[in-house]
Specification:
Layout lengths: L3 H11 L3 E3 L1 H9 L5 E4 L5 H10 L4 E4 L4 H8 L5 E4 L2 H16 L3
Parallel strand pairs: 2-3
Antiparallel strand pairs: 1-4, 2-4
Length: about 100
């Protein structure tokens, strides 16, 4: 069964609205381009703390998906991602919350 949340992350990547990996996400947060930051379930606490300390205004979600699961859907394994489009960020949050309600 296809995970709608992970599929939507793939859409964000194709729309060029997804920054992938530590350095790209840090740059997006620092420049206020990041509208949403996502951490995989296996992202380190140190990484999460580092990114959170850069800005307290960006939305952050620690997902229950592993970096391998995320990588399989976006084509690159990463523990942290940033969505840079506001509308897509809102849609990602909605897809994630819907999946949590339905146990995905």
């Amino acid at each position: 069964m296809t995970d709608p949340f992970l599929s939507f992350l793939g859409l964000c990547r194709r729309a060029n609205a997804l920054k992938i990996g530590h350095d790209a996400v840090k740059d997006a947060v620092r420049s206020s381009k990041a509208k949403l930051v996502l951490f995989s379930s296996d992202a380190s606490q140190r990484l999460e703390k580092e990114i959170r300390n850069l800005s307290n205004t960006v939305n952050v979600i620690r997902t229950d998906r592993s970096s391998d699961d995320i990588g399989a859907n976006i084509g690159k394994r990463a523990a942290v991602l940033a969505v840079t489009d506001e509308n897509l960020a809102s849609a990602v949050i909605k897809k994630y919350e819907e999946g949590m309600k339905h146990g995905n």
